[in-house]
Amino acid sequence: MKTLFPVAVVVAAIFALWYVFAVVLNAPWAYSKADRAGVELSFSEMVSDTMAQEKPRLPAPHQVGAEIWKTTVEKKITSKRSLIYHGWITLRATLLGFAFGTGLGVLLAVSIVYFRVMDMSVMPWIIASQTVPILAIAPMIVVVLAALQVNDIVAKGVISMYLSFFPVVVGMVKGLRSPDRMLLDQMKTYSSSASQTFWKLRLPSSTPYLFASLKVGVAASLIGAVVAELSLSQNGGLGARLLAGSYYGQTIQIWSALLSAATLAALMVFTMGLLEKVTLKRMGMAQ
Amino acid sequence: MNNAVFRPKEATQVTETVIEAKGLDLTYQTNDGPVHALKGVDLTINKGDFVSFIGPSGCGKTTFLRTIADLEQPTGGKITVNGVSPEEARKARAYGYVFQAAGLFPWRTIGGNIRMPLEIMGYSRADQDERVKRVLELVHLDGFEKKFPWQLSGGMQQRASIARALSFDADILLMDEPFGALDEIVRDHLNEQLLELWARTNKTIGFVTHSIPEAVYLSTKIVVMSPRPGRITDVIDSPLPKERPLNIRDTPEFLEIAHRVREGLREGHAYDD
Description:
The complex is a heterodimer. By secondary structure, chain A is mainly α. Chain A folds into two domains: 4-58; 83-282, Orthogonal Bundle (MetI-like fold), CATH 1.10.3720. Chain A is built from eleven helices and no strands. Chain A has helices at 4-37, 43-50, 61-72, 83-114, 116-129, 134-147, 152-176, 181-189, 194-231, 238-247, 251-283. By secondary structure, chain B is α/β, with parallel strands linked by helices. Chain B has a six-stranded mixed beta sheet with strand order 5-6-7-3-8-9, with helices on both faces. In chain B, strands 2-1-4 form a three-stranded antiparallel beta sheet. In chain B, strand 1 and strand 2 form a beta hairpin. The interface between A and B is medium-sized, with 20 and 26 residues.
């Protein structure tokens, strides 16, 4: 309840601003229509017109809401116009990419922590990889992987992975290095082997860091999947809906796909948070 | 007085040497030049001794303990533990080490923490259970096996840490200011328990401390050290009986030893200034 109120206030503020901008941005089109029809437009007529245009510059929230309702609840989920259908396609690619990214990230982190050569040679490349615009590199990856006869969903997963492995590497390296000297010395007094130190000390110590990374990673993964769908739009997905919307100037469709993607990301981050809570509680690390 | 080493009179009965250091040097290379953490340290510790190392910060007492444990490498001289090198002794799991902080793993219960070295050393599950139960009783923590570290007070955590160091029955127990962070009352209590534990297990204990009363109360042998370079200035064999109630600290014998320790510490400082 305590958290609900501030959240509600922020949401209300966003909606209010959104309506104001909808009026301001759509007004020119309303006036121009009236001008051509040779009628004078009162302020209230203008406002009501900006709320109900077919291809507004900025659709009003209720227009987007109605579109989302129409394309989720009222459409069969097998329909190509259903947002749930497209959302599911995106979600699959996201989860696949997230799994790839997490795996790759953990693997890289372990090798960076254990091999100084990796730390020196690979880390700069990992950072450089994130400065390349994903939008530019995604089509190349699609083309290359298609030439290699790789499944489309895997190709999307790879693009997703490209974004999501980074936070995992950074977080895991920090996490695996988090045990202080005393704890490491302690393991040494037991004459613990390197693998025992890894499984019994380093890995458990890194868990809170891993979850922090996973939350960032899963959101990045969704962005990767959506971007990949701009290049692989024939397979559908929220990215394909965005692209189709922009081809035909269907701003309402674009905004509803955008909002759906944002909701999906929020849900996944929330799920990760829940998983984090449960895991840390079971490990005894949450008090 | 510099570098003078006071050797105790030869013991009359036959004793078994556990730790022996001869002319031990340890020098760190830093940007400001070499730091002599230990210089010319000679010391013999016999089986069943309770040896305290006392001295101001930087006198090398912790460094010496860590050298015994093979956590630091000497740059000169010789040291043996159970007749072999510290590294071999460590690999043979000859000692348990208690650090300044309890160092319990937050994701493991108290029982799980004590089990950690046992798992690493490959004890069977049944053996682990039996040992966890036994050492928890030894430090009076029975019933806390399933609790997580954060559910225990600082003193209890430190006791759990001692239990863990005892769990694999090493004959040597090395303790680096284990009660340094605890308040006086808890500390007294733990000191009493430690003596009782020492009497029951007959271990050889190396104990680093800042506190003169603690050192005198616990030890059969008190090693006074001083800094720059870290060295031993006095070795005092305590005439106090093995049986020591807390009020022994008000006896003249006790105060006399405490006085000698204080003098030793002062000399180390006077030389330095």
